[in-house]
Amino acid sequence: MYDHRGMGVVDYLRILLHRAWLILIFTGICTGVMAIFTYEYMVPVYQAKGEMLVIETDPVQVGEDKNKNRTPFTLAEIDANIKLMETYKSVILSPLIMEKVTESLDGETLEEVTIKNLLEDVTINAHERSQVMTVYVSRVYPEDAELIANRVMETFVAEHEDIFNLKNTRIITGAEVDADPISPKPLVNLSAAFAFGLMISIILSLLLGYPKKYKRN
């Protein structure tokens, strides 16, 4: 049986100090293993981002000057454009657009592009109460991410007029890739491994040290 009387902060600190070598070694091993795994085995993934604006809800008239007799947008028109964005998100990710993007990229990318991996790599974000849609593309090669993001936006802008009989989208920000990969995150991984190793090593130290010091004959 264990005697719990007299156990205080000082006693726990003494146990931890006595097992400091275990804490240091175990924490170091956990952090080192994660560092090796992060830098040697995890493949960096880069993300490109571009933006499109949804405007003008009137149908396109052949030969019509789009700047002629233009009136300021009303709140109702802006709301209509915002509602259209949800539909546009689905259309961008539809086989119709993805197939055309795939065909146009044939031979231009460092890594093969298929409809399946496009659907995995492309994300469309429609900002709440905004007429701006953001296209994100995540790929192993940053050049591919940027090229694909721009091609997705260009293809949609070119094709959606025929689909909806509207000409109400334009690219406002060409896709650019972030210099730093979105994954892995070395600092996050190493911090998590350090915290895990420290926590487990402290628990082990207390479990190993407690019976030895407080066990009754």
Automatic annotation (TrEMBL):
Q: Which family does it belong to?
A: Belongs to the CpsC/CapA family.
- Main location per the UniProt record: membrane
Spell out the InterPro entries in the cross-references: Bact_polysacc_biosynth/exp (IPR050445), LPS_length_determ_N (IPR003856)
Q: How does it sit in the membrane?
A: Multi-pass membrane protein
UniProt KW keywords: Cell membrane, Membrane, Transmembrane, Transmembrane helix
Where would I find the Polysaccharide chain length determinant N-terminal domain in this sequence? Answer: 10-104
Q: What is this protein called?
A: YveK family protein
Residues making up the signal peptide according to the UniProt record: none
Q: Where can this protein be found?
A: Cell membrane
Q: Which residues cross the membrane?
A: 20-39, 190-210
